Structures
1.
Amino acid sequence: MTNPSLLILAGDGIGPEVMAEVRKIIDWFGAKRGVSFDVSEGLVGGCAYDAHGTPLTDETMARAQEVDAVLLGAVGGPKYDNLDFSVKPERGLLRLRKEMDLYANLRPAQCFNALADFSSLKKDVVAGLDIMIVRELTSGIYFGEPRGIFEEGNERVGINTQRYTESEIERVARSAFELARRRNNRVCSMEKANVMESGLLWREVVQKVHDEEYPDVELSHMYADAGAMQLCRWPKQFDVIVTDNLFGDLLSDAAAMLTGSLGMLPSASLGAPMANGRPKALYEPVHGSAPDIAGQGKANPIACILSFAMALRYSFDMGSDADRLEKAVEKVLADGLRTADLLGEDGVQPVSTSEMGDAVVAALDASL
Ligand code: IPM
Ligand code: MG
């Protein structure tokens, strides 16, 4: 049997630093668990633009289509702010999502016990929080046509189009219901059916998929603005939230921040199964490239490490090893290790990015 293959695209800003820590974890699994990954690397985002004039080359895109999973760090930075839209770092990421057809973006928002004090919300509101946002990732206003800035009379008009087909809604709804069955069996679907036709269709289709295929799962619907409010008021009422591309972008940032651990949260973007049965997949931290702290050893590598744990779970059928890695992270936090983003407690000195990675490796060793 051939080794599972991984394409690592570390990207910009803190991407390379946090990815270096994931490499330690990957090596650990090779040395101690006998699972050697066939790892290749490529460029995405601003660094790819600097080297090739494009945020993602066709060669890297083709490689991403071949491998079992892609692991991405972060893209973007102020250096690229004035580039044309077509070559901005973000386009590299959007092209990967679109061409790999990664329609289901899983964004867990979990509050680690050791960190419940870091939330801007009261501790009892967030302690033990564990919700999963499923964001549609390949359609909606991010990709709808027409789009552009056009002349209209004597002024310009900026246009984007929100667009969803029934099949696009159906497949992401199924992903959410499947996940809910393995969790607490509840799905809340969010849209603006009171204002948008695409939202009305979303609501109808999610309900139909539920009634025909997942009647055992508890389904509710909420307008996305009310959903944002409920997320801040009492987030523990939710289990799985399913929503469109743009609302999912906003709601997942809000949910991540209320756990107090934006630097801690992973994500998985999954598509249809490939010939080998594994889903097309890309894993990346929810946080961005944090250019203000890049290159200083301050970044928290945990989000990227936990993204690799999601890869173990969803791409490689290694759920118990994913549990092992997640427990190692929890142990390191319970032991009091904190990167600079998690300071606030008296007298705690921050550890560097690589010290945090080493500590996770040591906790993995101790788990054997
Ligand atoms: C995200 C990011 C991206 C998005 C950007 C970097 C294109 O905000 O993954 O949430 O808007 O989807
Ligand atoms: Mg976002």
Note: The pocket of 3-isopropylmalic acid (ligand 1) is lined by residues 90, 93-94, 249 (CB under 6 Å).
2.
Amino acid sequence: MGHELERACEWVDESRRIVVLTGAGISTESGIPDFRGPQGLWTKNPKAEKLSDIRYYMSDPEVRRLAWQQRLAHPAWQAKPNPGHLALVSLEESGRLHALVTQNIDGLHQVAGNSPEKVVEVHGTIHQVVCMSCDWRGPMQTTLERVRAGEEDPACRNCGGILKSATISFGQSLVPEVIDRAMRAAGQADLLLAVGTSLSVYPVANAVPLAKSAGARVVILNAEPTPMDSVADALLRGAIGEVLPKLVDKLGPRHLTSDKRLT
Ligand code: NAD
């Protein structure tokens, strides 16, 4: 085991309120591509970025038709949690996980077994659909059935408005209570562990310097450098599915409840 990994293991063991911040990189080993990694959707096809921009989505029916086709074929429907996700379940079972803040929309942390109350989905979820006019929400699969049945751009059955996955697109505001909850948790952390994120999407990337300035140690596990590497106390490179299990491997239970509850 490398020196950095050994040190990080000790810190994880010592910590009581770990906040984990995950990004698309934790799900690539489950077959869901990231955006900016070497095999990322945008690295390979920069035009795909348009489909994630709310301005094009709202103004261009062709973009919506393409987006619905992409949702139909989304790898999340078949994806299974990988050893990286399972390691975070072990971390929660050890009593050290304060919050699991995720930029991912795939729901794999909950499928793996992390408690829904611990998971803060700052960029929403692909498992639900929302109406952009009346805020109606419903399960994604029901709307996908309508697409399969031939509706290329299904409209809200309540009000005729534009439907979209309940994810935050570029140009769209975050849900204030959700991002506030994530930032509050980061400020309460004694260790912030960033996993599989390029830390280039704001404001959530600010969780890293915020935790650091509130006194937390910062560990970054990512295959590539990030703009926050200078803030980190330990930098771990390598495949998440290999490194993350090692980080939690020897943890005993720490039957301590967090003294600052995540609200
Ligand atoms: P990103 O694509 O910007 O960065 C992912 C990082 O993970 C890259 O730096 C890459 O080198 C690293 N990485 C990829 N696979 C890895 C592995 N197996 N081991 C170690 N490192 C690995 O992702 P981001 O920072 O999360 O930002 C992208 C945005 O796109 C997020 O806001 C998220 O909402 C969304 N997104 C989500 C999913 C998903 O839900 N699975 C997938 C793609 C994009």
Note: The mean pLDDT is 92.
